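dude i think i finally got it to work??
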Amino acid sequence: MTAVPLTEQEHLYFQTDFKTFDKNNSGFLEQSELPALLEKQLNRKPSDEEAAAVFAQMDENNDEVISYNEYMKVMAGDAWRGYASMPNDDAISSNQPTAEQEAAATKLQASQRRKNAVKVVKKKKETKAEKQARKAAKKKKAEDDEAEIQEIMAQIENDAKEKRDKDKAYIQNL
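look at this
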């Protein structure tokens, strides 16, 4: 299956994110810059282990920085066809996005956040249903355990009563 090339808006979206989190304007993401990007994308603060794992995955050549090319290979996969596929070859060299880039990126980010929010809500609903099922099963198990305990206690009491009655009859027969 052939990947569909990225649109100009998608390029702008990824460029804006990359540039926004390249705090020192080096043209690379350093390990200290990645957690903020992940926090935005995950909508939660990543653990140190998660950030380190993502950094290791993205840093293909192990030079301790993530180039835009490395970033795009992970973010866009097969749809990324290298710098030559970018609509504006020098777009990455400019660290200040244009108003058009900002508007396009904002629109794409809002759309992506909306999709992510729907996924989160669906996951929470599934999680609530699973929690309810788990609680019901736990309650049923507790009730079954209690019934079994009551049964055992009744049997013990019955056995004890029978023994007392036998002992009483034995003593009376003496």
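Residues 89-93 have pLDDT under 50 and may be disordered.
im so relieved honestly
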